């Protein structure tokens, strides 16, 4: 990046907020995929006006701009594959308003998700989306990827809570869309277009979020199985029985093994799978659901453990949220996918992954959000081993084809980014893909905003 351009960027954001030293650039060169692409500079704007000025400059000079939250993404969405400028939102980290009466919050994109949840709790409110990285991921990144989490089975995902946006468009215009009310049907629903667009259509600078009353009570159960097939087959049955959990998580034998020391409740040695079931709501509602669940489990002769208190509940959740990082004790690398299938087809998916692991001589484990069919498939390997790398790629391609054949989706919450782009035509038909590309071209005629993401071929 030419020195004259660097000086213009410094004029916009201030010299301390433009990073160009190699060691600084390195900190913004990677994400959860482990891939590395070095940017030419990193800007940390402090306002929508500064973001707009940067994008206007990018259009004049033709350099790429890649939005970045905390860099926790798993598909390369925040990687500067074309070099250029990383636009990090770390300075735009204020909770601007919490309105308990109307149950909304207004935040900047750099607010950490867990910090928002803690602030809302003081007002007896909750923001339900709860990705595993909630202690460090940001609201802007969550909105860009339409993040979910364990509570999605009852409460939905990020797009269900974003009701208003301030967005800087790729050409530098500042647009405001959405409402602060429960209803609003004036014009096209642009919120749904931009949430989940992975930083390719605009940069969020302010988000209006719907919140909910904090549940009065919560109860947590671990269901224990010596048969993987029975555990996965029970998911649809639990929901069909009229039980409405806020969480219905699944872990296979390998996932249990890597976090077993963190699970506070004793498990039989033959444990092959766990279902983590949580019920929340008013005291009366939870008591009724709890009775229904316990009766269902006893009638089905299903072993279970009940978390006695908040400490045990927290330890169970620590174990569940630790699975993804803990799997590196098995192999130095992994291919992490977040496929989605109809709940009734989860047993088929899990059986397929077991067969795939045996056929290709790989370690493949499954865990995740069974309540909404969003299963995390981790293919463990050593990328320096050519055979394992090739087998891992083959396993991934076979997994995607199988999932689409089941009527599922390539991604439930991680997005497409860089790593899944070539597989998008498996799920999106040619006409829909053409419409999406036309929208991108219309909003970003010079293709400066996060180029090379989502679409096959860049």
Structure commentary:
- The structure is a single chain.
- With 458 residues, the protein is an alpha+beta fold.
- The protein is built from 16 helices and 18 strands.
- A hairpin with a 4-residue loop joins strand 17 and strand 18.
- The longest helix has 20 residues.
- The two termini are 22 Å apart.
Fraction of helical residues: 25-40%
**Beta-strand content:** 15-25%
Mean of residue pLDDT values = 96
Uncertain stretches: none
User: What count of domains describes the coordinates?
Assistant: 4
Coarse morphology: globular
Keywords:
single chain, 458 residues, alpha+beta, Uridine Diphospho-n-acetylenolpyruvylglucosamine Reductase, domain 2, Uridine Diphospho-n-acetylenolpyruvylglucosamine Reductase, domain 3, Alpha-Beta Plaits, 4 domains, seven-stranded antiparallel sheet, five-stranded antiparallel sheet, 18 strands, 21% strand
Please give the structural blueprint.
Elements: H1 3-13, E1 18-19, H2 22-26, E2 41-43, H3 48-61, E3 65-68, E4 85-88, E5 95-99, E6 104-107, H4 113-121, E7 125-126, H5 139-145, H6 152-155, E8 162-168, E9 174-178, H7 190-194, E10 203-210, E11 212-213, E12 217-225, H8 228-240, E13 247-252, H9 253-259, E14 273-281, H10 283-299, E15 303-306, H11 310-321, H12 323-326, E16 333-340, H13 346-360, E17 363-369, E18 374-381, H14 386-405, H15 424-427, H16 430-443
Parallel strand pairs: 2-4, 3-4
Antiparallel strand pairs: 1-2, 5-6, 6-10, 7-11, 8-9, 8-10, 12-14, 12-15, 13-14, 13-17, 16-18, 17-18
